[in-house]
Specification:
Strand content: 5-15%
Number of helices: 16
Number of strands: 14
Helix content: 25-40%
Strand order of the largest sheet: 2-8-7-6-5
Bound molecules: ligand F0G
CATH superfamily of the largest domain: Type I PLP-dependent aspartate aminotransferase-like (Major domain)
Shape: globular
Order of helices and strands: HEHHEHEHEHEHEHHEEHHHEHHEEHEHEE
Distance between the termini: 55 Å
């Protein structure tokens, strides 16, 4: 660790290569968003100035990761890079078995097909879009058991990712523990605003699940970031290294799915892990059907090498300090400007509360989708809707789910943008806020069957 005591979040790296950006005019951006059906997912990267669509696969790799690409062993079977990855995962996450997949949803697919039986109930600390869909496709029903505070964007509760044990117990009593194949536990809950669970909560959950013989399957996607928050906020962890907290979390769970495109600092990759011999045997077999042989799972050898190195860099204190520090810098500036955002500030993104930003727009006129389009028009800042469009329709009523959280996510890629870029974002949001009274909602004119937010098209009202 750097022994020089400094109080800013300054980056523990310097820039060796840059990617040039194209600057656009407002007219060009207006045309671009119209062509994209007012859906930021359908805009072209060349039209974007600051890309806060996602922190997924958008990290800048280090020189060591790039060097690792040259060490790619592209053998069909038994690639050396698989064993490097296995070693890194076993060391830092601690699970016995690893099955690589092309990305997180590949792992979710395998796990759901193996563990869920038709009519099962799968509790989780809030849904994630792909996770829930794979549970449903496997015949399961997702049941939200996150604490109430998670649904309140103004609550300052420090562990909004916690599981409400009473909600879990109510489900188990209602359907019986044998209809609950596992609980899905996400670190730094994405849809709640990047909010952590506490170790105390996990300990209680672990005791409960032990008693009822229910496995805990971790969504490890942003769990290193969760570990950072535990160290910062939870009694007894101030001097515990992030890597030890990560191990403590994983040791209380039975397996995980991972989108390595986030915490692990790579542009593509994921994995499934477990400790159970039988589940591993099934996953190793199923991965061959959908992803590739069990020693590459849809990845090139070089991707696995970059991932192994990315994991080692991600668990360092200095990386996490800069990562969380930059997100907080943006959040605090937006709060100072009076912009309604989800509190406390999470790890991977700032979430603007579109209900309070555009209170005059009904939720079925998609305020968050509208605001995301306006930020793109204003300054070429690309963000993502996380509200009524993302939540989709209830399979029971067919109506929009109208979730309590109607948010626009400003997601910060790791190691990519500067403090000056963050200042531009603040200016863009503030300028849109000043003209918010003139902004009208959107009407959906095309709705795809699955995960509609990716490809839906809209027109202004
Ligand atoms: N779990 C969580 C918590 C995620 O945030 C994601 C992806 C996945 C699973 C699926 O992983 O994309 O590698 O297949 N989140 C991205 C995002 C898409 O922008 O939040 P994947």
């Amino acid at each position: 660790m750097n022994t020089h005591k400094h109080h800013t979040w300054a980056e523990p790296y310097k820039i060796k290569m840059v990617e040039l950006l194209r600057m656009t005019t407002r007219e060009e951006r207006l045309e671009a968003i119209r062509n994209a059906g007012y859906n930021t997912f359908l805009t072209r990267s060349r039209d974007v100035y600051i890309d806060l669509l996602t922190d997924s696969g958008t990290s800048a790799m280090s020189d060591r990761q790039w060097a690792g690409l040259m060490l790619g062993d592209e053998a069909y079977s038994g690639s050396e890079n698989f064993y490097h990855l296995e070693q890194a995962v076993q060391e830092y996450y601690g699970y016995k078995y690893l099955v690589p997949t092309h990305q997180g949803r590949g792992a979710e697919h395998l796990m759901s097909q193996i563990l869920i039986k038709d009519g099962d109930h799968v509790p989780g600390n809030m849904y994630f879009t792909t996770t829930r869909l794979h549970q449903e496709l496997a015949g399961g029903k997702f049941v939200d058991v996150i604490v109430d505070e998670a649904h309140d964007p103004q609550s300052e509760f420090p562990f909004k990712g916690n599981v409400d044990l009473d909600k879990l117990d109510a489900l188990v009593r209602d359907v019986g523990a044998d209809r609950v194949p596992y609980i899905s536990l996400e670190g730094n809950v994405n849809m709640a605003g990047g909010q952590p669970f506490s170790m105390a909560n996990l300990r209680e959950l672990h005791a409960y699940c032990d008693e009822h013989d229910i496995p805990i399957m971790l969504d490890a996607t942003r769990t290193i970031e969760n570990a950072w928050f535990i160290r910062e906020r939870e009694d007894g962890y101030a001097d515990t290294p992030v890597r030890d907290i990560l191990r403590e979390i994983c040791d209380m769970t039975d397996g995980c799915t991972m989108s390595a495109k986030k915490d692990a600092l790579v542009n593509i990759g994921g994995f499934f892990c477990c400790n159970d011999d039988e589940v591993f045997r099934k996953a190793q077999n199923l991965v061959v059907v959908y992803e590739g042989l069990h020693t590459y799972g849809g990845l090139a050898g070089r991707d696995m090498e970059a991932m192994a190195q990315g994991i080692r860099e991600a668990v360092t204190e200095e990386h996490m300090a800069a990562r969380i520090g930059q997100v907080r810098y943006l959040g605090r500036r937006l709060m100072a400007a009076g912009i309604p955002i989800v509190r406390p500030i999470g790890s991977h993104a700032i979430f603007i509360d579109a209900r309070r930003f555009l209170p005059h727009i009904d939720q079925d006129d998609y305020p968050a989708q509208t605001l995301a389009a306006e930020l793109f028009i204003e300054a070429g800042v690309r963000t993502m809707e996380r509200g009524n469009v993302s939540a989709g329709r209830s399979p029971v009523t067919g109506e929009n789910r109208r979730p309590q959280l109607e948010l626009v996510r400003l997601t910060i890629p790791r190691r990519v943008y500067t403090q000056a870029h963050m200042d531009v974002v603040v200016e863009a949001v503030t300028d849109v806020y000043e003209r918010r009274a003139e902004i009208r909602g959107l009407r959906m004119v095309y709705e795809p069957e699955y995960l509609r937010f990716f490809q839906a098209r809209f027109e202004p009202l």
